[in-house]
Design the sequence.
């Protein structure tokens, strides 16, 4: 019955029948709403200090307790969610642009450009990701902008390779050969034929990479090399647990960002897997 | 055999080229950094004239063109001179990095060994009792293991086993001040190695399970069963040996991920390895140490991948080499 619809419609139909992916959406949408609206319903700001309640356990006044200087953990958690999602979205957008353009240059730029860019991709992938992450962080520095760049520069090579493989395939299709025969330029071929036919890999990459970027940001901030305090991020909130006193006595300070992190990453990964299976029915069979 | 040998030589050549490329990449990345060793080297509380700074830069060779600097650095590097740390007493980089190599190899070796044992055992158990309680339980644990980041696993493990249950030391490699004892080392090693292995165990378990399920439905397994071979022998001898082939490559290709995990585990457990060295060096912008450590870790990964490829060619005679 679904066969009368186009491939995108059928893919969306497959996605809508994927329970795990829908559960992922059911988790991530409320999270986004809470994170977006918290200043309207939460009494405390992420940096307002309650000197009467330092390191306080969860109470009715502070639902998730407070940290060492008396800041509300829930407020910081929600603000940290903003930071994490902002950093992840920006870095993924950047790496999408870089990855797609490098993939395009490799496909349409001639043999020399292809070899150079793909050897560079090989090179960037020889170092273990976390080691490259540390090297990049040492060069680019800490803060929101630098962290976005660090994650983007780490992540694009995988995408560039996938885009290149897809574009090489598309380039040989009859309709593209025909368009070229009618005098279409490289930019036309790339953006009218290449881009629409790569949308599925871009969407799947972007979704899974957002989860990955959240983890990378949290990892960097946890090591003290990402988002520096007083800005809140899930990673730098967990950094407090490097102190044994916090680890032992103030569990709410590090367990809540940890739980939020795992929940968000799981939900996004479910959605990404669902999209991948929906766009490529074969992948679900293996 | 000559064909395998030719394959080995070609892989060695490719590995060498990758090493050279790696050195170029690391060198360029670190020269792209804001500031240079001189900025980090001088004491900010001592006033220095721009002329003095320039003189220092000339002395460090920082005024020469990049390719020349690279070649000079490479020539020194192959003789074991990777420069000096900018922190503390300014130790030479290579001995510093090598002194941290042992603890990391120990931690990762123990972690990966645990992952192989637990992962294969779990995968076989899951495949034999497919969709049973054990299978589902193991799948859930594997899933959680894959999805939680190493630093969170480390914190939770440290909290549960060292803080609450008090059955493991809370960090370090040896009890400070105590004479070296193997039992002491082992006690410090178990928890971080176990936590490091979780992600790997989960991955190996998933692959072993899938691979076992495939092999268990193969014709030769049915033949063995119909001949009356005991079920244990079918699973352990006929099925497992064939199912393990894809798992061998998996183990090699995930070493890089294990190194990433080790960085976080070492930071949480204060384990004196390469990961902790690198994190401290990045905080201090100690570029010679960052460069040296990245280079040696990269080389380590390239060599290990090479060995896995060769091992695979030996284990599976069907593989097409060349």
Sequence:
């Amino acid at each position: 019955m679904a066969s009368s619809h186009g491939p995108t419609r059928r893919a969306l139909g497959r996605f809508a029948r994927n329970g795990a992916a829908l559960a992922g959406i059911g988790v991530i949408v409320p999270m986004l709403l809470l994170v977006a609206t918290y200043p309207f319903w939460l009494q405390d700001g992420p940096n307002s200090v309650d000197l009467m309640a330092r390191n306080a356990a969860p109470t009715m006044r502070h639902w998730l307790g407070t940290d060492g200087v008396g800041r509300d953990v829930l407020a910081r958690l929600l603000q940290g969610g903003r930071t994490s999602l902002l950093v992840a979205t920006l870095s993924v957008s950047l790496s999408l642009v870089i990855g797609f353009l490098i993939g395009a240059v490799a496909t349409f730029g001639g043999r020399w450009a292809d070899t150079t860019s793909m050897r560079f991709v090989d090179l960037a992938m020889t170092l273990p990701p976390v080691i490259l992450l540390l090297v990049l962080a040492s060069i680019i520095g800490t803060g929101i902008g630098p962290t976005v760049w660090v994650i983007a520069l780490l992540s694009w090579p995988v995408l560039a390779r996938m885009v290149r493989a897809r574009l090489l395939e598309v380039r040989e299709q009859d309709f593209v050969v025909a368009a070229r025969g009618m005098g279409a330029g490289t930019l036309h071929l790339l953006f009218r034929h290449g881009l629409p036919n790569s949308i599925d890999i871009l969407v799947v990459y972007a979704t899974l990479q957002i989860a990955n970027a959240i983890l990378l940001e949290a990892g960097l901030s946890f090591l003290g090399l990402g988002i520096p305090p007083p800005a809140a991020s899930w990673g730098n909130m967990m950094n407090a647990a490097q102190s044994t006193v916090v680890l032992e006595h103030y569990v709410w300070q590090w367990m809540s960002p940890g739980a939020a992190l795992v929940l968000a990453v799981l939900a996004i990964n479910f959605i990404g897997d669902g999209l991948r299976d929906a766009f490529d029915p074969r992948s679900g069979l293996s | 055999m000559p064909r395998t040998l030719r394959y080995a030589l070609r892989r060695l050549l490719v590995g060498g080229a990758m090493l050279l490329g790696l050195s170029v990449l690391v060198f360029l990345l670190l020269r792209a950094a804001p500031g240079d060793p001189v900025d980090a080297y001088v004491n900010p509380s001592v006033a220095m004239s721009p002329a003095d700074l320039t003189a220092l830069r000339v002395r460090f060779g920082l005024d020469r063109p990049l390719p020349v600097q690279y070649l000079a650095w490479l020539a020194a590097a192959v003789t074991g001179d990777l420069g000096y740390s900018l922190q503390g007493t300014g130790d030479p980089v290579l001995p510093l990095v090598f002194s941290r190599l042992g603890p990391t190899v120990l931690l990762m070796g123990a972690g990966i060994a645990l992952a192989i044992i637990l992962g294969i055992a779990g995968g076989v158990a899951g495949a034999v009792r497919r969709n049973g309680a054990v299978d589902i339980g193991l799948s859930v644990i594997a899933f959680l293991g894959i999805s939680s980041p190493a630093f969170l696993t480390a914190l939770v493990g440290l909290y549960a086993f060292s803080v609450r249950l008090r059955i493991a030391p809370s960090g370090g490699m040896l009890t400070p001040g105590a004479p070296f004892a193997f039992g002491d080392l082992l006690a410090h090693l178990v928890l971080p190695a176990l936590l490091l292995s979780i992600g790997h165990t989960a991955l190996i378990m998933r692959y072993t399970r899938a691979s076992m399920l495939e092999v268990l439905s193969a014709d030769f397994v049915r033949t063995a069963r119909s001949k009356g071979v005991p079920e244990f022998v079918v699973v352990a001898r006929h099925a497992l040996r064939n199912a393990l082939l894809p798992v061998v490559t998996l183990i090699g290709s995930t070493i890089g991920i294990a190194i990433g995990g080790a960085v976080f585990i070492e930071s949480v457990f204060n384990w004196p390895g390469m990961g902790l060295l690198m994190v401290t060096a990045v905080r201090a912008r100690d570029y010679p140490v960052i460069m040296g450590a990245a280079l040696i870790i990269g080389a380590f990964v390239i060599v290990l991948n090479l060995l896995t490829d060769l091992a695979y060619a030996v284990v599976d005679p069907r593989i097409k080499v060349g």
Notes: The CA atoms of residues 44 and 257 of chain B lie 39 Å apart. The radius of gyration of chain B is 24 Å. Chain B touches chain A through 47 residues (CB under 8 Å).
